[in-house]
Amino acid sequence: MQSIRHSIGTRLSLIIGLTFSLYLAVVLAVGYVIYQQYRGFSELASSQFGRALAAAELTRDAEIIAAEVFEIMVGNRRSNSAGNQRAENLTRLYQRARERLEQLGGAGEIGGVLHEELNRWQEPFFSSLDLLGTQLAREETLKAAHLRHFDAFFLLLQQLPAVESESLTPDEQRFVSQALVALVSTASVLNAERPGHIAQLEDNYRQAMKRLATLPLTAPQLLRLRAKLEMVLPEAFHSRPALLKNARATLATARRTRVLAQKLTSATYSYHLQLKATAQKAIADHQRLISRSLLGLLLASLVLATVTLGAVVHIRRSIVQRLNQLSGAMHSHLQGLSVPIPQEGNDEISGMGASFSVFVEARCRAEQQLEEANRHLQQMNAELERLSVTDALTGLANRRCFDQQLVQEWQRAERDGNMLAVIMADVDCFKAYNDTYGHQQGDECLHRVARAMSACLQRSSDVVARYGGEEFVMLLPGLDGRQAERLAWKLLTVVRALGIEHDGAEAGVVTLSLGVASLSPNSSLHPDGLVGLADSALYAAKAAGRNTVQVAD
C-alpha cells in the first residue's frame, strides 16, 4: 500500500485544490455583480461538468474492461476463480458509473439516443464475458485431464518388460514391440495440433492394438497390461480433439468479447464527447457575459496561468512521462523485446511497474519450463526409438532392425541389379557353455563374439545383428557367394582366436558354425528366401561337425 504523501491521487488533489482556490479568490475580488454571474456560471458548470465527468468515468471503465479482455487474450491467464471475480467487479464498476450518469440526467434527446446506444452493446458484452469465463474453466478441466493422461502413459511404459529379455517368448517380444508402438502413437497425439495428424496417429494406434489382440498371450502380467492399454489409451484420442476445439472456441469468444468491448468503449466515448461539447458551449455563453470583467482579472489570470502551467509541467514530468515509459516497456515486451521496466518512485505507477515485472518474470519462467518439458519429451522419444532397434545385451542391431534393413537392401539390390549376401552364425554348444559356466559368463561370451564379428566389417553398408539367442546374422550388400564365404571363414578364425575356454567343445574354445547364402534379388523371389538359404547352410555346417562354414547351393 502506497504512503499517502507519495500517492498520485493526493498530489493531484493538492494541485487541483490550490488552483481552484486561487480561481475562487480571483472571482470573489471582483465584486457583487461578478459574484452573481459567477454563481450562475458555477451552477451551470456543476451540472454540465458533472455529466461530462460521469461520462468520462464510464469511458474509463469501458476502456479498463477492454484492456482486461486484451490481457486475457495476450497474457493467456487461465484462472477460473480470478476470471469470474474480475468479471463481477467490472460489471459492478460499470453499473455504478451508469447509475451515477442517469442520476445526473441526460443531455436531452441526443442523450437518450446515446443511452440507447450504450444499452445496445452493454448486455451482449457482459454475456460474452461470462461465456469466456465458462470456456476458460472448461479449458482448465481439459488440461488437467491432459496431464493425467501423461501420468497414466508413463506408468504403463514403466510396466513394459524389456524387448530383448531372454525370458520372453517371441509372442511376448512382439507384444512389447507393438505396445511401444501404441504408446508412442498415443503420446504423440497429446502434442498433435492438426486433426489429420491425430487421425493418422489414431490409425497407427488401432493397427498396433489389433496386432496385440491377436497375440496368444499366457502371462497374467501381459494380459493385465493389454487390458490396461485397451482401457487407458483410447481416452487420449477423445480428450485431445476436445481440448483443441475448446481452445479455438475460447479464442473466438475472446475475440468477440474484445470487439464488443471496443464497441462499448466507442459508444461511451461518443457520449462523453457530446456532454463535453454541451459543457463547453455553456462555458462559452457565460464567458461572453463576463467579458467586461476580464481586464480586472488579467493580473489574477496571469498568476493562475503560471500556477496551472507549473502544475501541468509537474504532472507531465511526474505522471505522464512515467506512464508513457511504462506503456512503451509493456508494448516492447508484448512484441518479444527485452527492455528494462521502469520502477522508480514510490507511488501507483512504480507499483504498476513492479507488478508487470513480476508478470514478465513469471512468463519467462513458464516459457523455460515448457521448453525443458518439450526437450525431455524429445529425449524420451529418441530413447524409445533406440530401444526398439538395438539389442541390449550385445549392443548390435536387433532382429527387427535387421528385417527392416533386409527389405531396404533387397529393394536396392533388385533396382541396381547387385548381389546380396547373408551369413547366419551360431555359437557352437552354447547351451552346454551356459550350463557349465553360468548365464553371466554366457552373456559375456555373446558380447565378446558380437564385438569380434562387428570388428570384421569394414563397410558402413554391412549390418550385423543378433538374430535370437546365440544366433547372429550378417547382411552384406554387393557380395557374391565367394566373397561372403571368405568373410565367413575370417569370422570363424577371429572368434576361435579369442580363446574363450569351452570344455564342452571339441576345439576346447568357443567356435562358430556359419551358413552363407548369396543371390541376385528379383521380383520372383522374397527376402525371407535368402535368410532361409543361409539358415539351411547353417544347419548343414552343424551337421558337418560344427566349427566350419557351409555355402548354400
TrEMBL record:
Residues forming coiled coils: 363-390
Top-tier EC class: transferase
GO biological process: cell adhesion involved in single-species biofilm formation; negative regulation of bacterial-type flagellum-dependent cell motility
Membrane-spanning segments: 12-35, 294-315
UniProt cross-references to InterPro entries, sorted A to Z: Diguanylate_Cyclase, GGDEF_dom, Nucleotide_cyclase, Rev_trsase/Diguanyl_cyclase
GO molecular function, one term: diguanylate cyclase activity
Endpoints of the signal sequence: none
The entry's keywords: Coiled coil, Membrane, Transmembrane, Transmembrane helix
Cellular component terms (Gene Ontology): plasma membrane
Enzyme Commission number: 2.7.7.65
Domain (GGDEF) ranges: 418-553
Catalytically driven reaction(s): 2 GTP = 3',3'-c-di-GMP + 2 diphosphate
Domain of life: Bacteria
UniProt-listed SUPFAM superfamilies: Nucleotide cyclase (SSF55073)
Entry annotated with the keyword Transmembrane helix: yes
Cofactor: Mg(2+)
Protein name per the record: diguanylate cyclase
Source organism per UniProt: Marinobacterium marinum
